[in-house]
Design goal:
- By secondary structure, the protein is mainly α.
- The protein contains three helices and no strands.
- The longest helix has about 30 residues.
Length: about 100
Protein backbone atom coordinates (compact mmCIF):
# COMPACT_ATOMS: atom_id res chain seq x y z
CA UNK A 1 0.00 0.00 0.00
CA UNK A 2 1.46 3.36 -0.99
CA UNK A 3 1.48 6.43 1.21
CA UNK A 4 -1.30 8.01 -0.84
CA UNK A 5 -3.52 4.96 -0.38
CA UNK A 6 -2.90 4.98 3.37
CA UNK A 7 -3.89 8.64 3.62
CA UNK A 8 -6.98 7.95 1.50
CA UNK A 9 -8.11 5.15 3.83
CA UNK A 10 -7.44 7.30 6.90
CA UNK A 11 -9.36 10.19 5.32
CA UNK A 12 -12.37 8.00 4.52
CA UNK A 13 -12.31 6.62 8.06
CA UNK A 14 -12.18 10.09 9.61
CA UNK A 15 -15.06 11.33 7.45
CA UNK A 16 -17.18 8.30 8.41
CA UNK A 17 -16.48 8.49 12.15
CA UNK A 18 -17.04 12.27 12.24
CA UNK A 19 -20.36 11.86 10.44
CA UNK A 20 -21.23 9.20 13.00
CA UNK A 21 -20.40 11.61 15.84
CA UNK A 22 -22.41 14.41 14.25
CA UNK A 23 -25.48 12.27 13.64
CA UNK A 24 -25.23 10.59 17.05
CA UNK A 25 -25.56 14.01 18.69
CA UNK A 26 -28.53 14.87 16.48
CA UNK A 27 -30.27 11.55 17.05
CA UNK A 28 -29.73 11.73 20.81
CA UNK A 29 -31.14 15.27 20.89
CA UNK A 30 -34.21 14.14 18.94
CA UNK A 31 -34.71 11.19 21.29
CA UNK A 32 -34.31 13.49 24.30
CA UNK A 33 -37.11 15.72 23.01
CA UNK A 34 -39.38 12.72 22.42
CA UNK A 35 -38.31 11.04 25.67
CA UNK A 36 -37.19 7.97 23.75
CA UNK A 37 -34.33 5.52 24.28
CA UNK A 38 -31.16 7.61 24.53
CA UNK A 39 -27.65 7.02 23.27
CA UNK A 40 -25.43 6.49 26.34
CA UNK A 41 -23.00 9.32 27.08
CA UNK A 42 -20.16 6.79 27.09
CA UNK A 43 -21.01 5.90 23.49
CA UNK A 44 -20.89 9.57 22.48
CA UNK A 45 -17.45 9.88 24.07
CA UNK A 46 -16.20 6.64 22.46
CA UNK A 47 -17.20 7.93 19.01
CA UNK A 48 -15.21 11.10 19.74
CA UNK A 49 -12.22 9.13 21.07
CA UNK A 50 -11.95 6.93 17.97
CA UNK A 51 -11.61 9.99 15.76
CA UNK A 52 -15.04 11.64 15.64
CA UNK A 53 -14.31 14.61 17.88
CA UNK A 54 -14.82 17.28 15.20
CA UNK A 55 -18.20 15.88 14.14
CA UNK A 56 -19.26 15.44 17.76
CA UNK A 57 -18.33 19.03 18.62
CA UNK A 58 -20.14 20.39 15.56
CA UNK A 59 -23.22 18.30 16.32
CA UNK A 60 -23.12 19.28 19.97
CA UNK A 61 -23.22 22.98 19.15
CA UNK A 62 -25.49 22.83 16.09
CA UNK A 63 -28.14 20.76 17.88
CA UNK A 64 -27.48 22.51 21.23
CA UNK A 65 -27.07 19.14 22.85
CA UNK A 66 -25.00 18.37 25.95
CA UNK A 67 -23.68 21.95 26.00
CA UNK A 68 -24.66 22.40 29.66
CA UNK A 69 -22.63 19.39 30.77
CA UNK A 70 -19.13 20.55 31.68
CA UNK A 71 -17.61 17.17 30.82
CA UNK A 72 -18.91 17.47 27.25
CA UNK A 73 -18.20 21.18 26.93
CA UNK A 74 -14.55 20.71 27.93
CA UNK A 75 -14.05 16.99 27.25
CA UNK A 76 -14.82 17.02 23.54
CA UNK A 77 -12.38 19.85 22.71
CA UNK A 78 -9.78 18.15 24.94
CA UNK A 79 -10.15 14.96 22.90
CA UNK A 80 -9.70 17.01 19.70
CA UNK A 81 -6.51 18.59 21.08
CA UNK A 82 -5.27 15.12 22.04
CA UNK A 83 -5.88 13.94 18.46
CA UNK A 84 -4.03 16.93 17.01
CA UNK A 85 -1.04 16.41 19.33
CA UNK A 86 -0.89 12.68 18.52
CA UNK A 87 -1.11 13.37 14.77
CA UNK A 88 1.67 15.93 15.07
CA UNK A 89 4.01 13.52 16.83
CA UNK A 90 3.18 10.67 14.44
CA UNK A 91 3.84 12.83 11.38
CA UNK A 92 6.96 14.55 12.78
CA UNK A 93 8.41 11.76 14.91
CA UNK A 94 11.70 9.98 14.33
CA UNK A 95 9.98 6.91 12.82
CA UNK A 96 8.73 7.13 9.24
CA UNK A 97 5.35 5.40 9.14
CA UNK A 98 4.26 6.09 5.58
CA UNK A 99 6.42 6.00 2.50
CA UNK A 100 5.24 8.17 -0.37
Amino acid sequence: MTGFEVYKVIGIYLIAVNLAGFFAMGIDKLKAKKRGFRIPEATLFIIALIGGSVGSILGMHLFRHKTKHWYFLYGMPLILVLHIVCAYFILNGPIEFFVM
